[in-house]
Structure formats: C-alpha cells, structure tokens
Design brief:
The protein contains 26 helices and 12 strands. It is of the alpha/beta class. α1 crosses α8, α18 packs across α19 and α24 crosses α25. It comes from Flexivirga alba.
C-alpha cells in the first residue's frame, strides 16, 4: 500500500517529497504488521482496508527520515540554537559509546530540562559520526513547514494522549519495533516532558515499553539502553516554567514561539554538560528480571527506575547549583566569604562521595564562585549590591523558584545525607526510658529514615529498603569517621552538632513545607470527599499567604509542582475519599509532616550555630530533646 508521501508549501500547494521513510514503507509491506492490523480490525468490527488506511495516516504523521541535505542543515540550525552555550562532552565516554554504536541499536534515554535537549543529543552524536538518531518529540512541536523539515532530520512526532486511539498505539508500537529491528538509534526523554523543578521527574514508560516489546518479540532484536544527562549553568526558559508552578499558564508552541525562543539564545548562558550514564543491554536485563519472577510490566517499571538512578548518578554538580543551594538557605544577602563558608563543607562532602563536578570545576575556588555569583546576577536570579564596603548577593524577588530549579539539578546527591541527619536527631531525642526495639537506638534511627523515605518517595528516587539502609550506613561512616554498630542519644547529639555539612534544612525543608500546606488544607476538609483541583487551588492560595506570614521558610515552597506531589502521596495513603476514619488520618498526616518540619528547622539552627565557630557548638544533648 502506497503512503502517498507529500508535503505542502505555505500556500497549501502540494509539493513532492522523496520516497516514504524506509521504516514506514517497510512496515506497510510487513506481514507481521498486516496480521496485527487484521486482528485489530476484527476486534473493532471494521473493514481491514479502513484500518490499514488509518494506520497509514498515522505513519505519515509520525515517520521520520534522515535526508542528507536536510539533516546537515538542521544540524547547523541546532548549533545556532545552542549558541548560548559551550557544550561540554566527556570524549572518553563518547569513545566507549561509539564502540557500542557499531554493533547495537542505542536506546538513548535523556533527562529533560530544556527544549534544547532534543537538539543537543543528536547534534553531539552526529558531530562524532554516530549512526543517525531518531529523536521522539511531542506532536505539539509539529509546526507548519518547520515540522516537515525536522521530520526529515530524524525527529519523530508522537501524540501524548492516545487512550482512545488503539490503532495509533499499535502503529507507534510497530514503528518503534521496525526502527529497533533496523538497528536505528532512538532518543527520547524518560521524563516525558521538561522538569519544572530542576530534578528528575518520575519516568514515563511509553517509548521504553515499545522498545521492550520489540526486544521481547524477536530473538534477533536487542538494544543498549544509554542514560544521557544534560544539565546547564543557566536556562532562558526556567522563568517561564517556574511561573507555571505558581499558577501561570503554559504558552502554546507556535512558529512565533520558536522565533522568540531562538532570539533568547543570543545572550550567553555559560555551559551545557552532556554526560553518559552506565549503559546496559536490554535483553539481558529483561531476562534477569523475568528470572526473578517479574512480569513484563513490572520489569519495565524496574528498568525505568534504574535509568533514572543512572541519570542522577551521571548528572554532574554545577557551581550554579551549589551557589544557589547556599543562598536559598539564607533569608539575607551574603558576601563572598559567607557563600564560600557554606560551599566549602558541601564541596568537601561531594569530593568524599566522589560525585562528578561539571567541567571539573573547583567548587572552593574564590574566582569560580565569584564568577558564578556575577553570572546569576546578570541573569536576574540574584540581586547584587556593591555600594557598601563589599559586594553582597541575595535571591532576587520572585526568583526563589528559579534558584531552586538550579539547586535541584544537584539535590539528589544530598538527600541521603539529609535523611541521615534527621535519623540521628531522632536518636538524640530519645527519652532514656523509651522501650527500644531489637537493634537498640540505631534501629530506631533506621526506622525513622525509612519513614522519611516513604514520606518522600514521590519526590525522590530511592533504592530498595535494604540497599537504602546500606547507603545510609555509608553516610554514617563518613559522618562518624568510621564504622558504627552501636550508638546512644548523647553520642549521636555530639556527632550531629559537630557534623559538617548540615543539609536537611537546605534540601528537605522546601518540600516538607509545601507538603505541610497541603496537609493542613486537607485536614480542614474533615471527613468529606476532596475535589483535587479545588484542593490544589486552595493550597496555592494559602501557601502564598503562609509565605507572606513567614509560616514557611521560603517562597520556593509555593509551587503547584510540589503540591501535586504531596497530593499524590495523600492519594496513595487513601486520604482523598470520604471514609469513617479519614478525618483522624488526615489530622495524623498533617501532624506527621509538621513534626518533620520542626526537626528540619532544628537542624537549620544547628547549622547556623555550627557556622558561627570553627569548633563544635556547645549544645548539650538534652537541648536537642523536645
């Protein structure tokens, strides 16, 4: 069946195009696909030719190709879009990946912080002579004229809402299978859309599921899954994304939007860092998961989480992230020495944990931190004042969410440390007469850490419970300077007060404050069924009020993105539907979060006192108890 591939110019006149893209043409002549279309037609009670025609229409919409002339020139256009950045790539990583590219289909799952991600990945690979990459993007970007050009440069446009389009889903699934069968490289955002907070969003399984189905469906098909992290010093589009988090509307994509977006890139924004996580063969991983008794759907979920963990591990710490972390922890302007005082212990910790630093930057170098402060001030994120005895910087009004976006690109490296601090605080607060479980005080701390893990599991990526405890033990060894099997409240209090850095208030307070606002509004509903949209709207309004009243620590907690995560947690705990005991459980939910906020605030006070002197603070262990 001919696909009748044609395009139209600006006047609507039909223009001839080259032959249909190879995979689309092969698919329409493939017996495997024909059999499935026939089965789908029988299920829907429709003529086979009608269903085949519908599938052909969908293929015309989604299928991409790599025309030599178009791809070359679109790659140049991509470099022009990226002109605000120097794109840094680890060439050793690229050399290893190039060896895999010779014999494998690469399934490149990238993090998504910018529209530029979908340009950066194929451009970086093309510049190093990788096989052509087919990149999946939302159909909302299939703009007149431009869409036809980029489709001939490897961009596959897909619809986001296909629940009522079974033939579309079958066609897309089959098209992905054909691409993998032909050993094409595929790239897509594992998050589905751009993050609005800076940290990774929960993975979306759509494209990954189709790739898994392709690998499971034929012995000769396999793919190497490759996590690809992309992070930027600054981004022009962050302000627009964070505005959505406070109730603003997302502007629809259009040709005018593309022109404005391209114009913004004239202003230099520093560097973009593209790094490769640890690849793994998909078939081998599937076979291992199936051997453990997991179904295909469970295996896909596990693989998606594994990709997210590897993306976090590959994401380097930027100087921008660490500087924003330092300034967000203070409600005042800081001079350079004060910023460095906060950054120094963080830098030492990052070095001890061997986390990668973007561009191999020295996080403790005065000139590096100074330049970052100036760049953030130039970008409007910070306000600088230099008319006194020395320059000082603080977060600009209404820029807390922007600064938080940059901080959150590195927040994953500090979550375990933050949870450990709260676990240690729980031990230090134990009453001497408390009846202890088997394992003593240390077991109390581990159980508190796991409670926090469950409280924040919709916000951050955590390993299984056993691995989580092992990770915390490694954190405790760093804090204590050695292995600890037994611990008591007084020793824990001394260790906690003298520890550097303290991070719980910097890392967890914004999220817990946001959770507290939603939990408070939910508790006010009594035992009534909750309308989720109404609850979010009320939480946003009250959150703004609490920020003005300083009932929450920072304006960055006033965020629909954070409220939606808190709502997901409440839904998971079955707190949204009317029930006989739901009012009491809602009150308990709010109390649980309020107590966590109290203890995070206490860590913040310890940090301030610890920063005031070079020696451990003179806080008696009893002062840590309520």
């Amino acid at each position: 069946m001919s696909l009748g591939w044609r395009a139209r110019d600006l006047l609507g006149r039909a223009l001839p195009m080259p032959a249909p893209p190879q995979e689309a043409d092969e698919l329409m002549h493939d017996q495997w696909f024909a059999d499935r279309l026939s089965h789908a037609a029988a299920q829907e009670g429709r003529p086979v030719e009608e269903v085949r025609a519908e599938a052909a229409d969908y293929l015309r919409e989604m299928a991409a190709s790599h025309g030599a002339f178009t791809t070359k020139n679109w790659s140049r256009a991509g470099d022009w879009f990226l002109r605000a950045y120097d794109v840094l790539v680890d060439e050793d990583q690229m050399a290893k990946l190039k060896k895999l590219d010779r014999t494998n289909s690469l399934a490149l799952a990238f993090s998504h912080r910018s529209y530029l991600d979908g340009v950066a990945v194929p451009n970086v690979l093309r510049a190093r002579r990788f096989s052509p990459t087919f990149t999946f993007g939302g159909a909302n970007l299939d703009l007149p004229v431009l869409g036809q050009i980029v489709a001939r440069s490897g961009l596959v446009f897909i619809r986001r809402s296909t629940g009522d389009l079974p033939i579309y889903r079958l066609t897309l699934k089959s098209y992905v299978r054909q691409l993998v069968k032909n050993h094409r490289n595929l790239a897509w955002s594992i998050e589905g859309g751009r993050t609005r907070t800076g940290k990774l969003r929960p993975p979306v399984h759509g494209i990954l599921k189709y790739i898994v189905n392709a690998v499971e469906g034929a012995d000769q098909i396999d793919a190497q899954v490759v996590p690809v992290s992309i992070v930027y010093d600054q981004l022009h589009e962050v302000a627009g994304m964070t505005a959505e988090a406070t109730g603003g509307r997302k502007k629809p994509e259009s040709l005018g939007f593309v022109v404005r977006f391209a114009a913004l890139q004239r202003a230099r924004m520093g560097r973009a860092y593209l790094t490769i996580g640890e690849p793994f063969p998909l078939r081998e991983r599937l076979e291992a998961l199936h051997a453990d008794g997991l179904t295909t759907d469970q295996a896909i979920e596990r693989i998606a989480l594994d990709i997210s963990h590897r993306l976090n591990r590959a994401t380097p710490v930027t100087v921008t992230a660490i500087v924003c972390l330092a300034l967000l922890g203070e409600d005042r302007a800081l001079n350079l020495d004060e910023v460095l005082e906060t950054v120094q212990p963080l830098a030492s910790y990052i070095e001890a944990r061997r986390w990668p630093v973007a561009g191999a930057a020295n996080l403790q170098d005065r000139s590096t931190v100074w330049r970052t402060l100036q760049d953030l001030a130039m970008g409007g994120v910070l306000t600088a004042y230099d008319r006194g005895t020395e320059p000082v910087w603080r977060i600009s009004p209404d820029q807390h969410l922007v600064a938080a976006f940059y901080r959150n690109t590195a927040i994953h490296i500090l979550v375990d440390r933050a949870i450990l601090e709260l676990a240690m605080l729980t031990i230090s607060e134990l009453d001497p007469d408390t009846e202890l479980p088997e394992g003593g005080q240390l077991r109390v701390g581990w159980e508190e850490a796991k409670r926090l893990r469950d409280l924040l599991k919709f916000e951050f990526f955590f390993p299984g419970r056993d691995q989580f405890e092992q990770d915390l033990r490694a954190e405790l060894q760093i804090t204590a300077g050695g292995e600890i099997d037994k611990i008591d409240p007084d020793a824990t209090a001394r260790m906690l007060t003298s520890a550097k850095p303290h991070v719980a208030h910097l890392v967890l307070r914004p999220f817990l404050d946001a959770y507290l606002v939603l939990a408070d509004r939910l508790a006010e509903q009594g035992d009534a069924t909750v309308d989720e949209d109404d609850l979010l709207a009320e939480t946003l309004a009250v959150g703004k009020q609490w920020a003005l009243q300083r009932r929450i620590a920072s304006a960055e907690s006033v965020s629909l993105e954070l409220y939606k995560t808190a709502l997901a947690l409440a839904r998971h705990r079955q707190l949204l539907e009317a029930a006989a005991d739901v009012a009491a459980r809602r009150e308990a939910f709010a109390a649980e979060i309020a107590d966590s906020v109290r203890r995070v605030a206490l860590i913040g006070e310890l940090a301030k006192q610890r920063a005031a002197v070079d020696l451990p603070t003179h806080i008696e262990p009893s002062e840590l108890r309520p």
